[in-house]
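Q: Hi! First time doing this. I have a protein sequence and I read that you can turn it into a structure. Is that right? Here it is:
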Amino acid sequence: MATPIFAEIKLPPEVYAQAREGINGVYSLDFDVAEQNIQKVFAAYPDHPFAHFGNAMIAWSRYEYEFEKSDEKQQKVFEQILDDSISGIKRWLKKNPQDPNGYMGIGALYGLRAMFNMRNRNWITAYFAGRKAIANLEKSLALDPTYYDAYFGLGIYQYYAGTLPAVIKILAKIVAIKGNPDEGVKQLNLAREKAVFTADSSKLILIEIQNVRGGKYYAPEKSLEYIRQLRAKYPKNPLMHYVEIICLYETGQLDAVTRQAQEFLGLIGKDPFYKDIYISRAYTALGTAAMARGEYAQARQLFEQGREALKTQAVSRWGLWNELRLGEVYDLLGERDLAVKQYKYVLSFKDKWGFDDLAKSLLKNPYQLPAGQDPGPLPPL
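A: Yes, that's right. Below is the predicted 3D structure, encoded as structure tokens:
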């Protein structure tokens, strides 16, 4: 792919390559490689948007994937780096006010802030960050209509603003949030096909959208195709491996789910990228596949093994999801007292991951799984 022409600065090919290598390091979860290359960009062009964008993406990915969104210290590190990165790009734009890279970079980072706040249910803060993201991304495209990376952030906004939960739509009307899911999916596909830095991120977001059951864009077979492309490109990344497991589950290939999840579990502790914190993911996949086959006793054993394996770890999002699934299995086996104990255990933690409503409903009414139905999507709520 040819190096794009920038309004103010034409990056030397080696610096452009370093920026791409740094972002690819993030996708591979090889943070040492990512940081080394991003620092080279900083050294050559202090405050360049690519460097700040890469630095923030490293911090986000470490919080999101290496620490499973469960480490408050890493969350604060990410928030500080995000603030510093936005400030750095603002300095760049003061000197280079016609550089579309600056507006794309700062727009992407405001979008990251919006997504972070939305996942933490800080809706007003997410809205204002999202509005800044859109304004900057649109300015980037006004300066360079072929800057396809900008469509990634625009697509996310259009889709998610247009598919907000009903209770949030009341708030959305107050602050005039509008979205168009069809346009969002179109923009994400444009970024998937033509973007330089965000093509792979667009695939990951489209996988998430295409795995929403009952949704207009539900297409798990296409999601499976995309994740296999990404696994071939980033073979070291265990999260790409796990997303394939999710897609196999969504396409009904339960035996393949079990095989892949067993392989995933076997790599933990042997492969440096398969860390102990991913143990709960493996057992959740194995146990959920067993539930879907109606093998409740086997599912119980697997979820209990997962709980045992995590006794030395701090509670994580996937770990607590494993505990909730175990309660559901106890209900299916008629062991209501054990199920109630599990739901109360889930409720004993601060509701950082949005499990409380489900746990409370299951305290009132035992979990049921009609014959022929699976227990719902594999990932946490």
